[in-house]
Amino acid sequence: MKEPVLIKPDGTRLDGRKPDELRPIKMEVGVLEKSDGSAYLEHGGTRVFAAVFGPKEMHPKHLALPSRAVLRLRYHMASFSVEDRKTLGMTRREIELSKVIREALESVIFLEEFPRSSIDVFAEIVQADGGTRCAAITASSLALADAGIPMLDLLPGVASGKIGGKVVLDLSELEDKYGEADMPVAISPRLDAALLFQLNGRLSLKEFDEAWELARQGCSKIYEMQRNALKNRYETYKPEEET
Ligand code: ADP
């Protein structure tokens, strides 16, 4: 495929967005019945289900920690999530992303409240179109909250970066592939800290400041959506739903 021109003469992107615009986002909490907490997120063309099991007694027992719960997280892309069918098993990329997503979420969970326990999180990408690690973080933190796990904060994630010489928010797969830089981050507004921060490509210091500011604003917007998704679930929640 010939390299596409990512920024049109009028300054907009191929999908019509302005540089600082997020893709359309929809999220819903409590979408799966067999897990303790769950969430579904559509972030542009990227779609992810997150399911949480626990806290529960750790198996195998020798992996239990006396002072806190162990968080186990599996980030996985379904083989039908991409155009060329992906291998069924876990790839090196998925193993690495599972680790960085787990480390980001560990910072917002009160793990010490559940010694000798495990909390298992599954983030299943059912459709991939860029930004899947950030979408997995946004959805997993919602599912953890839905499971009633005490947390310091919800964690929103989004990437910013540089395409066609311009600093932009929320890269699609095409923009990620043909752009100059991709910077996925997850920022906790309450901790005022980036719990995931990665950068692929090159940015000048000025561009970095701009990209950081866009990512910060993007995370704040997604954070508000996360809070609303939880409110929507629990303002209409009736306990008899559980019987
Ligand atoms: P992220 O999804 O967090 O942006 P990457 O930068 O590694 O992570 O991937 C960018 C995009 O490339 C993904 O969102 C997905 O759309 C696509 N992609 C990743 N891995 C594969 C794969 N094995 N096959 C096809 N497309 C893939």
What does this structure look like?
The protein is of the alpha+beta class and about 240 residues long. The chain has one domain (about 25-230): Ribosomal Protein S5, domain 2, CATH 3.30.230.70. The protein has helices spanning about 90-105, 130-145, 175-180, 205-235, and strands spanning about 25-30, 35-45, 45-55, 70-75, 115-125, 155-165, 165-170, 180-190, 195, 200. The strands form two sheets. It has a five-stranded mixed β-sheet with strand order 1-2-3-5-4. Helix 1 (about 90-105) crosses helix 2 and helix 2 packs parallel to helix 4 (about 205-235). It is globular. About 45% of the residues are buried. The mean pLDDT is about 95. Bound molecules: adenosine-5'-diphosphate. Adenosine-5'-diphosphate (ADP) binds near residues 129 and 132.
State the domain count: 1
CATH classification, class level: Alpha Beta
Structural class: alpha+beta
Strand percentage = 25-35%
The second-level CATH architecture is: 2-Layer Sandwich
Query: Level of helix content?
Result: 25-40%
Bound molecules: adenosine-5'-diphosphate
Count of β-strands: 10
Main sheet specs: 5 strands, mixed
Please trace the helix and strand order, writing H or E for each element: EEEEHEHEEHEEEH
Number of helices: 4
The CATH topology corresponds to: Ribosomal Protein S5, domain 2
- Report the radius of gyration as a whole number of Å: 18 Å
Low-confidence stretches: none
Brief sketch in words of this structure:
The protein has 243 residues and is α+β, with helices and mostly antiparallel strands.
